[in-house]
Specification:
Blueprint lengths: L2 E6 L1 H7 L4 H8 L3 H8 L8 H11 L7 E5 L1
Antiparallel strand pairs: 1-2
Helix pairs in contact: 2-3
Amino acid sequence: MELVPVRCRIPVLLKRIGKNQQWLADRTGLGKQRISDIVHLRMNNISIQRAALIAYHLDCKIDDLWVWEWR
């Protein structure tokens, strides 16, 4: 078994602060398509540094970026 992300919470976290994916892309220096890939779980090899950067701008913990399940 391994712990895998099953749903991204970034849209919920962005809505909480009244921002959108373009704002997050601008803040993190990642492209909007890259943010979209992360949100839609098309990118499963995000570095811990990028996850930390996203979490920093969303004022949350890295673990809060996704809903996790054992599979």
